[in-house]
Amino acid sequence: MHSFPPFEEVKELITLARREDLGASSDDVTSRLLIPEEKVGVGTLVQRDVGIVCGLPIVEMVCRAYDERLRVEQIPGFHLEIIEGRFSDSRTTPLMRVRGPLRALLSAERVMLNFLQHLSGVATMTHRFVRRVEGTSARILDTRKTLPGWRALEKYAVKSGGGMNHRLGLFDGVLIKDNHLTGVGLKDIASFLGGVVSRSRAEDAKRFIEVEVDTLEQLREVLKVDGVDAILLDNMDCPKMTQAVEMRNNSHSTSSGQANRKGKTALEASGGVTLDTVRAIAMTGVDRISVGALTHSAPALDIGLDIED
To answer: What is the dihedral of CA 236, 240, 245, 250, to 10 degrees?
Structure first.
């Protein structure tokens, strides 16, 4: 099981979710009018669809934000370490119980389900993409196309589904895109990028450096640059990506072909990748496939909370 983001990284998001649901007065009008203040209840979280459950550690964090008396209980045979991040084809899988003041439990229900359903949806979507490229050398990566404030959680969900994380943000890696190269002519790309790589390596010798290209001519120039870790092939069709792989392989068979510190420069496909196209893309020989849909288009996984009578 991958490490879940610490409470300090997600508490602001939980606080926001609670505040927008209960309002400035922290009032659940319906539960207050119907449920006696002293009544205690028990609810069971249940997976109701096929997929990967992800985000269970946040249930306790949400409970803490609503009422310290809410307690999470493991179900025998369904401990968190067993079911978190695991694929299940059952539509009636019990996940965990929550016990405590019924008013608080009902108030927290929607928020905890929103977190669980979305993160499980991201993990499940990632799992589907990973399964499609089995038997190839390609790895599935996420992007920065995440919901504002959700990035740490969504990237955790991607890893839970078997994918890899791209850079976390603008701070931890270099990705030189077409807008960064505005005004730089084709014949000047190699020398321009060489300077950028040198400045970056002077700051941090281990920093990951990637360059985006959208033509094979640009690729040829970037392959001349020593120190580039990966090249992103933006919106290329499969025949062009196959050519790109051949160009990369040929460049590394020459005397000047040691393009990065680890050896072969990785090629990454990106742009409009779907479940229908991802296998053909992987078969071109690219090393990485980044998929924005993992986080921006993942449908929620059906998870419910059943209150015991």
So the answer is: -140
